[in-house]
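Data card: per-record layout.
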Amino acid sequence: MFKKILIANRGEIALRVIRTCKEMGIKTVAVYSAADKDSLHVRFADEAVNIGPAPSNESYLKIPHIISAAEITNADAIHPGYGFLSENAEFSRVCEEYGIKFIGASPDMIDKMGDKATAKATMKAAGVPTIPGSDGLLDTVENGIKIANKMKYPVILKATAGGGGRGMRIVKDDDGFQKAWDDARMESAAAFGNDGLYLEKFIEEPRHVEIQIVGDSFGKACHLSERDCSIQRRHQKLVEETPSPAVDEKLRDKMGTAAIKAAEAIGYEGAGTVEFLLDKHGDFYFMEMNTRIQVEHPITEEVTDFDLIKEQIKAAAGVPIVGTAYHPKLYAMECRINAEDPGHGFRPSPGKITNLHLPGGHGVRVDSHVYAGYSIPPNYDSMIAKLIVSAQSREEVLVRMKRALEEFVIEGIKTTIPFHIKLMDDEGFKSGDFTTAFLDDFDFSDL
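The structure for this 447-residue chain is written out next.
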């Protein structure tokens, strides 16, 4: 087992990793930018190293600075958390070169799954259901139109290096193809430095359902059931729950088996997720694989009683996994609390938290790095807390979540709490019958 782990991240996920390391008897090293010198992960780690100015490209994305911090503190492993360098093949490769264990996927796995066209081809070869589409990247608009007519519209153009909804355009007919092509390529080139596009059949009325998997260094993988991440705004998740209201035992087994196939096809090691689109007929299609821990991992922990960070660390240390499938014993839901104003287009709201009260009680968990007096920097992601509740039924979860949200006090900034409270009262959401387009018609005007 590792003696000392450096956490190459910030905020709540850095604090989350530190907590598990302490319970495992592993020393921790925090890295921080100038903007994060007062953050809790710096306070609670055994050691802390300043790695640069506030901008992430001068600190949290600076590989030489992080490797230097690991070397001077004698860390024998690095946990990348999520975001930043967690799915960066070069970072994983450099860790290998310096003899530091990267607690995540190997460079080869990241390369295979990071490029969406390659990932789709890999999954197709492994027998995992994939969305009908182009065979690799499109070379011309004319070929794209030919494939679109064969599949029948609507179709969607996607950036091969994309993420967060960027470089994606829905096309409904031949006439709109050229503009969608030009717009998607331009956006993809600006965001990712890669304008490669591929084409897929657009799945109407889909749900976004992901399967949590863990793989070991012996080629074996297991799944820990699904999470429904359909409540999204502009492809950014806001609420996640497990089990999914749309998944029964039979479908869970089918999706779980497909996810294990996907993981074992590439010899996946560590915690990751296989993401699917689930249509209204119960058919599911591979969308992408995230080769890291997910923001929403706590709800899986609550319903399976597994510490997924511990499972990540154990897998990286060469401990074999036990079992193949773990089904939920409870219901759980997570609301992402962002420093944003939902009444004004979710405009970022950095600033000083003047007063804070966290909710509590049975079945309530808060993962956060903020405190009264903490100033939220404008340089990073706006998520400042995750509110997780669990109960014996989805109905109880909804009641408990609303109670906990009403108890959650954050003053000095705007947050997404009012949106979540309103969502818990929405009849469509309460019914469990919704798709990824649910928030397109949601009324944000009174928030």
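Known properties of this structure: The first helix runs from residue 11 to 24. The chain has three domains: 4-103, 132-201, 207-441.

See the next section for split statistics.
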